[in-house]
Amino acid sequence: MIDLGPHAIFIIWAYFGVALGVFGLIGWTLLDARATARKLAALEARKAPRRTPESTL
Amino acid sequence: MSNDTTRPQAWWQRIAHPGQFVAWSAPLLWPLTLLTAVLFALGLWFSFFNSPQDYQMGDTVRIMYVHVPNAWLSQFVYAMMAVSALGTLVWRHPLADVSMKAAAPLGALFTALALFTGALWGRPTWGTFWEWDGRMTSTLVLLFIYLGIIALWRAFDDQLRAARVIAVFTLVGAINIPIIKFSVDWWSTLHQPASVFRPDGPTMPGSILTPLFMMFFAFTLLFLVLHLKAMHTEIKRRRVMTLQRKLAQGASA
User: Fold this and answer.
1) Are B159 and B121 in contact (CB under 8 A)?
2) Which listed residue, of A19, A53, A56, B207, carries a Cα 20 to 30 Å from B145's Cα?
3) Is B70 in CB contact (< 8 Å) with chain A?
4) What is the mean pLDDT of residues B100-128?
5) Which residues touch B184 (CB under 8 Å, ≥6 apart)?
6) Whole-prediction pTM value?
């Protein structure tokens, strides 16, 4: 570890806080994307069999 | 004249159609993610191992490499939301609504991080975590505006109506952006004035500008990647809502 001088604690906390925030944001974006994609797939699967008899009318 | 009505859509209308937008922008996600990661790796390496101490601040200058990009994004994301708000109000374009909504939580986080890193930088250099001066107070107001916008999006069931109300609110709130920018010139403040984008050129040496620009581009690309991904999710979420409504109507009929 490099020597960050007398105020090292402030520098470490600043980078740690940003890392936490950024990784949290990435994680939230990915989880939201996955949950929404799953919901959409489930709904389209429910819709699909119903559409076929309708379209033959 | 009748030709005008049958004319095919302009190219920008075609690529801005939500379905088309997902189709052409999805392949961009991985290369952009990779580029972001490389820029972060390089930026962090320069920030800690290949840049000098400041002659007055010593090592605390390294906080700048995360503070300035976050502070820049706090304003850039808002500017993007304001442009999208115009798209919502003038063209009533659904993609503009989606862009506005997806950007708000990202902007809120970058603003919070700018305030957080600023406080941690202020303590060793100014002797205080916080001061109610122009730059800090106006940035705190920006954070509250972001949180208000997020709350408004959640307050409406009808997202089309929400988009119009929030677009107006976003444009009114945009007055805060020039206030933040010029606060350091208008009022006497602890915060230093602009030192990179000045008419007479940056006042920093290249050895400090290199990590700053690397982190600047890394954070900006990070925002673009996350915004793109969040927009794709929001488009899907809208399809989910439409399908749920159709299913509910089908069930009640």
Assistant:
1) no
2) A19
3) yes
4) 95
5) B134, B135, B191, B192, B193, B194
6) 0.89
